Amino acid sequence: SGLQHAEIFVDAHHTAYAIQNLVENAINASSAGDVVSIAGAMLPSGDYEIRIIDSGTGMSEAQIREALTPFTQTDGGLARYREGLGLGLPIASRLLLEQRSTMTLQSKIGEGTIVAIRFSRQVSAAA
User: Cα separations (Å) of 3 from 6, 40, 42, 50, 52?
Assistant: First the structure.
């Protein structure tokens, strides 16, 4: 079936909130005809990774740094459909980091963005 079972210990509420922010960002960076997808896989290390991939506007390295800074927003050249405080990525990153998870962004202007969330393999919730 191709499905892999992964057992990770996370704060479900905060993890869901972080992922919701990341998916909303991917949708907001996209326009008609663009694709947003979510994929997950077990890594050889035993960690589990979720990727949120969009084929939207993309960001430069400088825009990624800005996007990870609280209260700033990047302008990818498209009209903003939704205003916000510029806290989505910083909050998501912080919530994941507090759970010993990591978030990385890869992006290219005009090609889209990949946000990878890596959940460390953990033996128990107290590990």
Answer: 10, 9, 10, 13, 18
